[in-house]
Amino acid sequence: MMQIVRSEAFKLRTTRTFLGITLSALALVLLISIAGAAAGTYHAGERPLRDLLGIGSLAQLFALVLGILAVSTEFRHGTITPSLLAVPSRARLVAGKVVAYGIAGLVLGLIAFALSAAIVSAILSARAIDNGAAVSEVAKIVVGGTLAATLYAILGVGLGALLRNQVGAIVGALGWIFVVESLIGIIPGLDEPVQKFGLSGLASSLTASDSGRNRLDQVPAGLLLAAYAAIFVVAGIAVLRRRDVTA
Amino acid sequence: MAHPQAIEVAGLTKRFGATLAVDGLSFSAGAGRIVGFLGPNGAGKTTTLRALLGLIAPTAGRATIEGQAYGALEQPAATVGALLDGGLFHPGRSGRNHLRAIALAAAIPPARADELLDLVELRGAADRRAGGYSLGMRQRLGLAAALLGDPRVLVLDEPANGLDPQGIRWLRDFLRSLAAEGRAVLVSSHVLAEVAQTADDVVVINHGRSIVQAPLQELMARRGGGARVAGPDASRLAELLRADGADVRPGEHGSIVVTDRSGEQIGRVIAANGIVISELAPSGQSLEEVYFELTGGGEGGPS
Question: CATH top-level class for B7-218?
Answer without folding.
Answer: alpha beta
